[in-house]
């Protein structure tokens, strides 16, 4: 908690200045909030292509116009592509389009996420788990070959960056010990929606820590980050207390988005690591993640997730096998 207050009140992440000239960047959930502000930075910093991967293409069009009018980038830089993470078919179609039509992917910034209070199902799993975890890593694995090909062809280090949160430490997550964690999380009878969003952010951290070593030597940098508490539309269903907290402490979406951009340019030292306040800050990971139980949970979750992903797209997990 002191670290949270200190960061929110006294740390101002650096304004991004690294050039993205010649780069192709995909940002999921970029019609609003942190994703839109990160996309604006990429366009301002000269990216050749910034793909707004959004479920609402009309909102994506408005974001494109807003970004163009503020950055004065050329009209062919920002593109709007449909992506709905609550549909596996949509994720597959997006990945196929990107694989076929893009000559390179320098940054896959997986930012889209939801925080909902109500239990709902998408693709057979509780919706938060489907959107924040299963589809997020389905997209990552489907696009890994393109990221790796970009590394080789252009002698560069593409980034796979996952937007997590410090709230990954704000949950008890007893489900990790269940015979089947994902099945337990999906059950309406046992779902604890009060800690579902933090659990989804913890799952992201655990999966990243299992996946990163498998990408060693591919040239792809995988990192995951905490943007801090920011003003955005995320807490539209959140409690009043959160709004009060945000009023006093939250960063603007633009300031928070600087951490997304920092992760997307971070060097190899960030591979497999947690970025907070714009720098690698492993000490800010939760005690559970750093514990022996956390390591065991990471391996268990990875095993279960790969079985789920294989069912959705047979063969996809071979993309992450060393
Ligand atoms: N704001 C914070 O304080 C904070 C703190 C820590 C971490 N984060 C993380 O930051 C990321 C961005 O959140 P934000 O604060 O910018 O929230 P936001 O303003 O609500 O933006 C979330 C984005 O995700 C998109 N999205 C939601 N469901 C989707 C789906 N099924 N398919 C595709 N896109 C979908 C939303 O699209 P629609 O507009 O169509 O809903 C929106 O573009 C999230 O991963 C969140 O967990 C935020």
Automatic annotation (TrEMBL):
GO molecular function: oxidoreductase activity
Tree of life domain: Eukaryota
Keywords: Oxidoreductase
Species the sequence originates in: Capronia coronata CBS 617.96
Family the UniProt entry places it in: Belongs to the short-chain dehydrogenases/reductases (SDR) family.
Protein name, as recorded: Alcohol dehydrogenase
Keyword presence, Oxidoreductase: yes
UniProt cross-references to Gene3D superfamilies, sorted A to Z: NAD(P)-binding Rossmann-like Domain (3.40.50.720)
Cited SUPFAM superfamilies: NAD(P)-binding Rossmann-fold domains
UniProt xrefs under InterPro entries: NAD(P)-bd_dom_sf (IPR036291), SDR_fam (IPR002347)
Pfam families per UniProt: adh_short
């Amino acid at each position: 908690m002191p670290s949270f207050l200190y960061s929110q009140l006294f740390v101002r992440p650096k304004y991004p200045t690294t050039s993205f000239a010649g780069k192709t960047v995909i940002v999921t959930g970029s019609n609003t909030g942190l994703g839109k502000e990160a996309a604006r930075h990429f366009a301002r910093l000269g990216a050749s292509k910034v793909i707004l991967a959004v479920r609402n293409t009309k909102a994506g069009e408005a974001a494109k116009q807003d970004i163009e009018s503020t950055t004065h980038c050329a009209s062919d830089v920002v593109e709007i592509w449909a992506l709905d993470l609550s549909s596996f078919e949509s994720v597959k179609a997006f990945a196929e389009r990107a694989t076929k039509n893009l000559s390179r992917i320098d940054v896959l910034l997986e930012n889209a996420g939801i925080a909902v209070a109500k239990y709902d199902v998408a693709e057979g799993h509780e919706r938060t788990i489907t959107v924040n975890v299963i589809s997020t890593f389905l997209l990552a694995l489907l696009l890994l070959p393109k990221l790796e090909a970009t590394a080789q062809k252009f002698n560069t280090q593409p980034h796979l960056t996952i937007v997590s949160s410090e709230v990954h430490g704000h949950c008890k997550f007893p489900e990790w010990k269940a015979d089947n964690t994902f099945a337990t999380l999906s059950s309406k009878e046992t779902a604890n929606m009060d800690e579902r969003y933090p659990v989804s952010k913890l799952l992201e951290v655990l999966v990243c820590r299992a996946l990163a070593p498998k990408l060693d030597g591919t040239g792809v940098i995988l990192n995951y980050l905490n943007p801090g508490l920011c003003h955005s539309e995320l807490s539209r269903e959140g409690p009043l207390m959160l709004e009060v907290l945000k009023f006093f402490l939250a960063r603007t979406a633009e300031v928070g988005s600087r951490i997304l951009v920092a992760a997307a340019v971070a060097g190899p030292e960030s591979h497999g690591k947690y970025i907070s306040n714009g720098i690698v800050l492993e000490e800010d990971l939760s005690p559970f993640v750093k514990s022996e139980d956390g390591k065991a949970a990471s391996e268990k979750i990875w095993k279960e997730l790969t079985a789920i992903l294989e069912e959705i797209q047979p063969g996809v997990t071979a993309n992450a096998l060393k």
